[in-house]
């Protein structure tokens, strides 16, 4: 897959993964990148290959000036334009030729994620990034968190599964999503796809407190079309009160491996709102993406929402089944 010329943003890392002390190596669509924070704390992305003898810069270090120093002969590169700023053994009076630079990429940091722009730098537009937020400031150890995992599915098939059979790839503890019970048809707008499904508390949660409705919960999935980022919201069906929100971002590592990162946060409820939900189950509500897939269940998945999205029902169905058998 060559994504060099694709004009789009890719979520390369959670902000928390890049703490500024060391560079990070990332593989996106088969291409190697290095991320680091410069002297002002700005996340920068360079090609993970030194301009001198191609050593991986991700094995280097960040200098006090905020440059990335190669581990081999110590050349230093700045992050914005990839320019070589320092060569340790440069002779007296010698200057650094301007062409000594590494590949550099436009980056953006938004809502706890770091994005790479893989296309023409002049067309990079941060304003298209979704304003999805799960209020990380309110997170505590038990009411919010983050995670990442690798999934052996092509990235577009992961998105298709998230749309058609979310319970195969995500897990909110205490809650069961009814994959084949949608509330109406998916809604499409210029930048988003929205699909709602019914969901239920688990048997155990229901036993502890009688729940009035057959399907007391809704899972609302909003997929941002330009980044494939998904905002998942579990809501109380009777009051439309949001209980748990999760942001899921995926990136192709190779043609058949996808890196998925997520943030989640449980909402604060008033006493009145709390009285309407199984209290204990709500307090244990947590979110994660399933790193291990049920291949047999994937083969039975009916690609409905994803097929409408792509407009290629036959192609998608044919592709998903062999991929699930990998
Ligand atoms: S390979 Fe990087 S400085 Fe020589």
Written description of the protein model:
The structure is a single chain. Mean pLDDT is 88; it is low at 312-318 and 320-326. With 326 residues, this protein is an alpha+beta fold. It is elongated. Helices cover 15% and strands 35% of the residues. It binds FE2/S2 (inorganic) cluster (FES). FE2/S2 (inorganic) cluster binds at residues 50, 52-53, 55, 70, 72-75.
The total of helices stands at 7
Helicity, in percent?
10-25%
Q: What is the highest CATH level, the class of the largest domain?
A: Alpha Beta
CATH architecture of the largest domain: 2-Layer Sandwich
| Shape category | elongated
Q: Which ligands occur here?
A: FE2/S2 (inorganic) cluster
Radius of gyration: 22 Å
Q: Briefly note the structural class of the backbone.
A: alpha+beta
Count of separate structural domains: 2
Termini distance? 18 Å
Low-confidence stretches: 312-318, 320-326
Quantity of strands, as a count: 21
Report the biggest beta sheet as strand number plus sense, adding barrel if it closes: 8 strands, antiparallel
Question: Strand percentage, roughly?
Answer: 35-45%
Q: What is the succession of H and E elements?
A: EEEEEEEEEEEEHEEEEHEEEEHHEHHH
Q: In terms of quaternary structure, what is this?
A: single chain
Average of pLDDT? 88
Question: What is the fold-level CATH name, i.e. the topology of the largest domain?
Answer: Alpha-D-Glucose-1,6-Bisphosphate, Chain A, domain 4
């Amino acid at each position: 897959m060559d994504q060099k010329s694709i004009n789009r943003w890719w979520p390369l890392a959670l902000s928390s993964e890049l703490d500024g002390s060391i560079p990070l190596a990332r593989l996106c669509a088969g291409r190697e990148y290095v991320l680091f924070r410069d002297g002002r704390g700005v996340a920068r992305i360079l090609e993970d290959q030194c301009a001198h003898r191609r050593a991986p810069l991700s094995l280097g270090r960040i200098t006090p000036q905020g440059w990335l120093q190669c581990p081999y002969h110590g050349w230093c590169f700045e992050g914005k334009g990839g320019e070589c700023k320092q060569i340790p053994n440069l002779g007296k009076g010698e200057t650094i030729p301007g062409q000594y630079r590494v590949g550099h990429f436009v980056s953006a940091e938004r809502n706890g994620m770091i994005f790479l722009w893989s296309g023409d730098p002049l067309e990079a537009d941060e304003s298209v990034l979704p304003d999805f937020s799960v209020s990380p400031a309110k997170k505590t150890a038990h009411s919010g968190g983050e995670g990442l995992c690798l999934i052996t599915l092509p990235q577009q098939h992961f998105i298709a599964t998230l749309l058609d059979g979310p319970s195969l790839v995500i897990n909110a503890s205490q809650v069961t999503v009814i994959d084949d019970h949608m509330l109406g048809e998916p809604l499409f707008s210029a930048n988003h796809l929205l699909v709602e499904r019914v969901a239920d508390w688990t048997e155990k949660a229901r036993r502890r407190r009688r729940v009035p409705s057959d399907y007391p919960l809704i899972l609302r999935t909003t997929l941002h079309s330009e980044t494939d980022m998904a905002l998942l919201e579990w809501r109380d069906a009777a009051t439309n009160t949001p209980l748990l929100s999760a942001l899921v971002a995926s990136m192709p590592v190779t043609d058949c491996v996808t890196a998925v990162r997520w943030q989640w946060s449980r909402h604060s409820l008033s006493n009145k709102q709390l009285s309407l939900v199984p209290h204990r189950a709500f307090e244990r509500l947590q979110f994660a993406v399933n790193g291990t897939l049920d291949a047999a269940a994937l083969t039975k998945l009916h690609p409905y929402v994803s097929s409408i999205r792509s407009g290629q029902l036959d192609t998608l169905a044919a592709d998903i089944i062999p991929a699930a058998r990998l």
